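ok trying this again, last paste got cut off
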Amino acid sequence: MARVIGGPAAWRGPEIVDSPEWKIELTPEHVEELRAALRGVDEPDRSLRSITRENFPLPTLAPVLAAVQDELVDGRGFVLLRGVPVEELTERQAELMYWGIGLYVGVPIHQKGEDDLLLHIRDMGLDRNDPLVRGFQTSARLDYHADSSDVVGLLCIRPAMRGGVSTIVSAVAVHDEIVRRRPDLASVLHERWWHDRRSGDGPESFFECPIFAEEGGKLFAHYGRAYIDSAPRGEGVPDLSAAQVEAMDLLDELDNSPEFVLNMNFAPGDIQFLNNYTIMHARTDYEDYPEPERKRDLIRLWLVLDRDLGLPADFEAGGITPRSAALSR
């Protein structure tokens, strides 16, 4: 029987929208430290994996980023870090600096192929309805979902001309409301569901994982309706039941309710870090500037955390890269 979880991760957007506690402003000292660390690794052929904490030292910023990790795991589940000096950097330098920051939060993993440790979120003009196209490759609205990593980081290089607002909700708060309103559907959401990785047409593209699971008194979520809706294309994957559709309809209704949503308008140099197990995120559709050099550009980083999160077994192996494999590298 699903139950109300509560805790610091069960926040509601209107209650915290004006709170300064989830925003961290880099100090001038932090920025100078980042510049100095970048100078030490800014070489044309430098591979990302060759950059480590040891050769990207951040003596005063490191404790701040350690506190970010604690907040992601045991607190609200999200942080907005502001002030990365992207406007003075080339694209390559921004990637190197962001990578160095990310190393102090978690272990980066690839996102589609072995070489995409950093992935630019840009409109590529692809068809959103193609089952092998992932939503971030278009300018269309993205529905609420969680990514396939412990933590997702988004660094804003340039926002869109219009739209492209990042919106987040507490998966814990939404779950608890479903338990109160429809405990029968909450139980359905705790069952195993088929998900589509959209990595191809073979069996490796499909896996089973609950949308919600409780382990050790904590709630874990994994959701992306488009990737559940497309899962029946896989051989042996059954069609969704009426109860499953009704459960997702209620989940989507609450995810999009002003009662729960927190909106974030990114500025250049902002990094949003989210715990994918307790936060669901979405994006409004957007319109770009006509000039290529002004088009919306975010850089995404997927991280696993080198600590015991107490994950349910399905969550350990449900992503694109199993956590154990990532942490053993």
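PB: full thing came through this time. The chain is about 30% helix and 25% strand.
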